[in-house]
Design brief:
Blueprint: E1 2-5, H1 35-45, E2 52-55, H2 62-70, E3 73-78, H3 81-90, H4 96-108, H5 121-125, H6 129-143, H7 148-164, E4 168-171, E5 174-177, H8 185-202, E6 210-214, E7 227-232, H9 242-245, H10 247-253, H11 270-280, H12 291-310, E8 311-322, E9 324-326, E10 329-331, H13 333-344, E11 347-361, E12 365-378
Parallel strand pairs: 1-11, 2-3, 2-7, 3-6, 7-8
Antiparallel strand pairs: 4-5, 8-12, 9-10, 11-12
Helix pairs in contact: 1-2, 3-7, 4-7, 4-8, 6-7, 7-8, 11-12, 12-13
Bound molecules: S-adenosylmethionine.
Length: 379
Amino acid sequence: MIVREKPEWGELATFKPNKKLPVYRWFYYKEGYARDLVFEVIRKFGLNSGQTVLDPFCGVGTTLLACREKGLESVGFDVNPPAVFASTVKTRDYDVRALKNAADDVLARRFESPDLGNLSPLAKRAFNRHTLDDVLFFRNIIMQMDDRTSRDFLMLALINVSMKCSYAWKDGAVIKIRRHPVPPLRKLLKRQIGYMIRDIARLRLSGADADVRFGDARKMNLPDSTADAVITSPPYLNKIEYSKVYSLENELFFSGLGLAPVRSHIGIRPEDVRKEDDRLSDVIDTSDLNEQSLAYFNDMHDTIKEMHRVTKDGGMSAVVVGNGCFPNGVVDSDMILSRIAEHAGFEAQEVLVLSKRWCTRNRVEKVGQTRESLLVWKK
Ligand SMILES: C[S@@+](CC[C@H](N)C(=O)[O-])C[C@H]1O[C@@H](n2cnc3c(N)ncnc32)[C@H](O)[C@@H]1O
């Protein structure tokens, strides 16, 4: 296996470049990567239109949308409802006239005070009263619309501006509340819809299909040998718990849904860890791993076996991942996942190191360096 530095792709492992791209920017996802990383991988693997790309952790659809631009069929899975929703809305085709009519209709409605119902203390603290009224008022109107495509499009615009008008701030793995002056939601919503409609004409999409599914990467409902390639980025060890960080969006717009995320940030019962440790210890040396790492690598073991099952012989995988940072040191996820991939039947060909960061204890004391890497595997 070759380990090589590739710092020129460092920024492409972040969502930042997408903020300037039409459609890609409709839902900011700190955990996402850049469209151009997907383009680079498509070029590297020599993929051609008509072939199928799988993203088992599709987030807000960066891989899928990039594939639509390049004429590649794609299928993506995710368990975070706002992400699945954003992926779906971003990869659709639109009738701009229908959208404009729907938007005019919604924006012309006169305000009526909504019922605040049983909102959580977090939701009540995350908005001022006027904004919360507006969020729920527009949400209720949009939810009643018959045409699903327009309804989802407008709902994504509303989710986007609701978060901009809130006091909530995602600080890594937690939501913090910072009160500050916020713009009127109705005005921002009108502007957001306008620029999303203009974005549609700015992005040329092929007729290739993007199939977005709410589902678990560890058990994908796909036949064997479906994908020509996998381009993906799983949750990073000890980084964020998606269900917690997106709990506000989930409560206000997606309540009642939910699947188990890959465990990047939970403690589990010691008896379960011991059981799981037995399975994993056939694959990697588990003696130095803490419970959280064991749980994570067990989940990733299941996922990688699934990736192998659904990939065609000779198919390539590109997996962007960061190492785990703990107070007592760094866990080299890139190397461990490559070992797990080999055990599952892949040939782990490359680790391209995109960036390096210090891992610190109490935010100051350096305990080691973490890498963010792109792993290249062949079935
Ligand atoms: C690093 S992000 C991927 C971001 C994506 N590359 C993008 O650009 O939007 C990892 C994703 O894995 C999802 N995830 C976590 N557990 C999952 C599971 N069991 N099955 C499928 N997706 C999962 C999270 O919700 C998150 O969206």
